[in-house]
Amino acid sequence: MAVKVSKVFSDPWYFLAMGCGSGLVPKMPGTAGSLLALVFYFILAQAGTWLYATVVLIALGFGVWLCDRVARDMQMKDPSSIVWDEFVGVWIALFMLPGGWYWVLAGFVLFRFFDILKPWPVNWLDENLTGGAGIMMDDVVAAIYSLIIVQVTAFGIESL
């Protein structure tokens, strides 16, 4: 079932699940959602570490419920137009970045790479979890892979 644009802009749950409408982009809605998530990242990055982490954890928990609600209403397992999972994934991937735009770019590209490629266990989560947890958790693990690589690389460069 394709989502109607009018539904996204009249129903607040759809609006959030569809990433403020970015999930309606016909080609690569996940990348579109991830790009819009960067705007919110730059605002969120101004908060302290604890507030950032708290917001991300709340967004994750809320996202499980939100994505489940909207996907069930759409009668689909994991609609590509739902991009709240990409929002949370970007925010996890970019958590506690060192300074420099190149780290943002690296985290973003790595997150998209792992989210699209879906290495184990990302693919297993994507295929076996259902509902909101299934929609959210593969992106969370893809983001954690990205976070680890960026942080280890940054630490290694700093140690030189």
Question: Which features does this protein show?
Answer:
160 residues, mainly alpha
Task: Give the topology.
Layout: H1 5-8, H2 12-17, H3 29-44, H4 49-74, H5 84-93, H6 101-117, H7 122-128, H8 131-159
Helix pairs in contact: 3-5, 4-5, 4-8, 5-8, 6-8, 7-8
Written description of the protein model:
Helix 4 (49-74) packs antiparallel against helix 5 and helix 4 packs antiparallel against helix 8. The protein has one domain (5-159). The chain has 160 residues and is mostly helical. The mean pLDDT is 95. The protein has helices at 5-8, 12-17, 29-44, 49-74, 84-93, 101-117, 122-128, 131-159.
Task: Tell me the Rg in angstroms.
Answer: 15 Å
SSE succession: HHHHHHHH
Determine the structural class based on helices, strands and strand pairing. Answer: mainly alpha
Shape: globular
Total beta strands: 0
Biggest pleated-sheet summary = none
How far apart are the termini? 53 Å
Percentage of residues in helical conformation:
over 70%
Tell me the count of domains: 1
Number of helices: 8
